[in-house]
Amino acid sequence: MAGRAVALSGGAGRLAGGLALAFVVALCMGTLVPLALAAEPGRGLRPADWTAIRFTLMQAGLSAVLSVALAVPVARALARRRFPGRGLLVTLLGAPFLLPAIVAVFGLIAIWGRSGLASRALGLAGLGPLDIYGLGGVLLGHVFFNLPLVTRLLLQGWAAIPAEHWRLAAQLGMDRGAVFRHLERPMLIAVLPGAALLVFLLCSTSFAVVLALGGGPGASTVELAIYQSLRFDFDLGRAALLGLVQFGICLALAVALLTLGREAGFGPSLGGPVARRDIGGPLLRGVDALAITLAAAFLLLPLGAVVARGLPALLAGLPDQVWPAVLVSLSVAIPSALLSLGLGLALAGLVTGLRGGAWAEALTLMGLAASPFVIGTGLFLVLNPLVDPFALAVPVTLLVNAVMSLPFAMRVLVPALRRAQADYGRLAQSLGMSGFAGFRLAIWPALRRPAGFATGIAAALSMGDLGVITLFADPQTATLPLTMYRLMGAYRMEAAAGAALLLLALSLALFWIFDRGGRWLDRA
Amino acid sequence: MTRLLLASAAAVLAALPALAQDSSAEGRPVLTVYTYDSFISEWGPGPEIEKRFEAQCGCDLRFVAAGDGAALLGRLRLEGARSDADVVLGLDTSLTAVAAETGLFAPHGLSPALDLPVDWSDDTFLPYDWGWFAFVYDRTRLKNPPASFEELLNAPEDLKVVIEDPRSSTPGMGLLLWVKSLYGDDAGAAWARLKPHVVTVTSGWTEAYGMFLDGEADMVFSYTTSPAYHLIAEGDDTKAAAAFAEGNYLQVEVAAKLKSTDQPELADAFLAFMLTDAFQDVIPTTNWMYPAVTPESGLPEGFDTLVTPAKSLLVPAGDVPALRDEAMAEWQAGLSR
């Protein structure tokens, strides 16, 4: 274990990691302080808040379990099949995760709503329309969002099983059961807790999806209670309290799950093509084809609806206001993604180098548990006396988005860094490489792919974000999602649908460029 | 990777100055007006009003948007007396009592003749437009809309509506107060009767209206003026609003001067300008509401086709804070499973 954390645990690496961690904690938890200080004596938590906390835990838990359970067969099928268009399919399957909530909701309704495709098909058979609204609708929405994310994380997991192992398994004549026990199960045990945690956290702060598809006040989340106490009641103390509750839930769960998910430790690999002998048989092929087809239909039909709604307006030409918004969004998304990568690398180095790194990693997940409304309001309270908040709209949004997407970067970078250090750390040390040289020559090459993927996710998420910018934006610095929202608010639903499609295309393109960029560098 | 990073960083840096540029004209005094998002959009009243007021004030009128009415008030409370705002435009009567309590606002000192369906005497908050809340439907899909709230509650279960959440939107708050003013202590029971008709409760008007247009519900909680948009802007006369026999609830949108303003004369001039034709005749076809003072040219063509409720309901602004929590609890209990 001595050589494990060679490259990033040097003094400079530890300092960078510590600074990054301090920054994340300050932004997420520190913003609660000005809220609590500015608060007048409030009324504390109300009965309705407890109902909201219970519903939040239930729906987020169910969403996480469902997303993970469904993603395993899909990712497994995608991992062991090669077919034309597979790469494109994998990229497209990731798209729902990148959609702004409101766009995804309208896409889902076009298929599953009372007058959606499925209801109309049922109507032909003489059956009544579907009614998804309620817990079912919330879960449908959350699985739609998160199935792609978990699938991608699992695909990374499968890709991390060295080719040598597959060859060995084939030579040993392992059957499917043995392959699962020796190769796939350890990988799943390593990846699934973290993935489930991510989905849980994403769903526990969900707001628009829960309200739109939840059917009524029975479906209320902590995030809504925060929003309400900030916007309607102006009860800053209660908002801070609820923010703390959200962190508490997040931290407890994160530590539990991160300790649970041990690294699979497959040992080093020389790469090379994966030859699998455990995937023959028409039955298995049929099962895989079914899993892929169902997942593709489930994820791509609503996307198709988004495209169909938006295409006429996009072709007819979007309103002028859209284009400056594209520029603002890009100038937020790209630096924010790079910052997220930088923070992610520094923190991954810290986490893998520390004993009890689970705590540090759990802290970095706070970006997901933090309410953008709390962060925005807290920052506003701190900055407003010092500078004009509007002047800072772009940098502030950029920083917050970077921290918000950090948990995804960490999910991808930490396992990759652990592997790289286990595989090459000792070699680097024995060659006398340390510090930056060790990182650049020994570790970075193994990180390029996951780094590209993580940056892509961060860029796309930041592109579609409608969080803190709403508190800081003046007319000149509206982002594309905000402009889309404003179009809808002015009855211009068609133009808004066009803007939504443009947003989808740009998010996907950004993700694709960074993801490909990582792979391209990996090959170069 | 490094080269890719550098290239994208350079592209962004090149773009930043264009974003940061300050459009203020040097030397002219600046009047800052806080308002809600849709007011300042390209399709809202903001741009035209800015042009018209600047033509006469010798000043730079700057609109700043912050979400919706409730967010606007929240923003002002965060900033307190330090605020740059000279005028706030976009609160409604469900917020004015709470707003007045903050002590941030100054009396307007005007006594205008307003064309509101109710009497108005508030020396701080000055209306600039108003509208009736109503359930909007598509006449080709819904042949016999309910003619009263009772009829809606008694309608067969397959009549579906989509409504907004009072915790996150002003229309939602309007519906909450409408039901409370009609049913009083029985409001909870009324919500329970409405429940089977409710497809979902959205966080804002936008989601609800979009769902209605997509055919998710027969009716959506909106304004009697919503059909005017479809008629005038799209030439589509299929949308209509239902006037209810018990009366429809009013939304009156108001503006006020901040006590802390550093431009008191300009702020007064803006409030006075707000009630002239130059401001008021922009309102109907941009904000899709009724102007507070009907312009000399009258209402635009198409507004005559809109339904006019026989009665206008409005809980006095001062009574709202006392009612709100109770009404919210009834709403929550009545609509929860």
UniProtKB/TrEMBL annotation, chain A:
Keywords assigned by UniProt, alphabetized: Cell membrane, Membrane, Transmembrane, Transmembrane helix, Transport
UniProt-annotated location(s): Cell membrane
UniProt GO cellular component terms: plasma membrane
Primary site of residence: membrane
Entries under InterPro entries matching the protein: MetI-like (IPR000515), MetI-like_sf (IPR035906)
GO BP field: transmembrane transport
UniProt membrane topology term: Multi-pass membrane protein
Gene3D superfamilies membership: MetI-like
Protein name: Thiamine/thiamine pyrophosphate ABC transporter permease ThiP
Taxonomy, superkingdom: Bacteria
Record field: transmembrane: 54-75, 87-112, 132-155, 188-213, 239-261, 282-305, 325-351, 363-383, 389-414, 426-447, 453-474, 495-514
Domain (ABC transmembrane type-1): residue spans on this chain: 53-257, 326-514
UniProtKB/TrEMBL annotation, chain B:
An MF annotation (GO) of this entry: thiamine binding
One example of a Gene Ontology biological process annotation: thiamine transport
Keyword Signal part of the UniProt annotation: yes
Signal peptide span: 1-20
One Pfam family it belongs to: SBP_bac_1
Keyword terms: Periplasm, Signal, Transport
Any GO CC annotation of this UniProt entry: outer membrane-bounded periplasmic space
Keyword check for Transport: yes
Subcellular location field: Periplasm
Source species, domain of life: Bacteria
Family per similarity comment: Belongs to the bacterial solute-binding protein 1 family.
Database matches in PANTHER family: THIAMINE-BINDING PERIPLASMIC PROTEIN, THIAMINE-BINDING PERIPLASMIC PROTEIN-RELATED
Protein name, UniProt field: Thiamine-binding periplasmic protein
